[in-house]
Amino acid sequence: MLCDDVALHLSAYSAADETSLPLPLRHHLATCLQCQAERAGYRRLHRELRHLRYETVQPDDQLLQDVLDSVRPPATVTPIRPSRRKAYVGGIAAAATAGAAGAFVLVTKLTTKGHRLAG
Ligand SMILES: [Zn+2]
Question: Considering its fold, how many domains does the chain have in total?
């Protein structure tokens, strides 16, 4: 087993003790100081990450608002006048009707085409 092969496995076995390592990996680590050092680094990183699991960070109260302000422009509310509301409802109804008509035409064409192929 080469150092490059060992490097691929070290992170996966960072929490494992020596006896649970695959035998070729264990043999390589017994003789290679470079891979031993890399394994020690992974084990230290794993310990520190495990410790962070129990750390609680209290964010600043303004943080949520700052994040929201940075990802979206400020919203403004514009009331819809009654005359526009009717126009919007009419537009939505027209779009729905056009969609249904398009679907009907498509189904009709597919059905007609199917009959021609069968006959
Ligand atoms: Zn090595």
Answer: 1
**Rounded to whole angstroms, how far apart are CA atoms 119 and 7?**
66
Full domain range(s) for residue 14:
3-52
Residue 63 domain-assigned?
A: no
pTM: predicted TM-score of the whole model, two decimal places: 0.46
Q: What are phi and psi of 14, to 5 degrees?
A: -65, -30
Domain presence at residue 71? no
Using a pLDDT cut of 70, give the percent of the chain over it.
Answer: 88
Compute, in angstroms, the gap from residue 14 CA to the centroid of ligand 1: 15
CA 7 to centroid of ligand 1, rounded, Å: 8
pLDDT digits (tens, 9 = 90+) for 2-30: 999 998 888 888 888 888 889 999 999 99
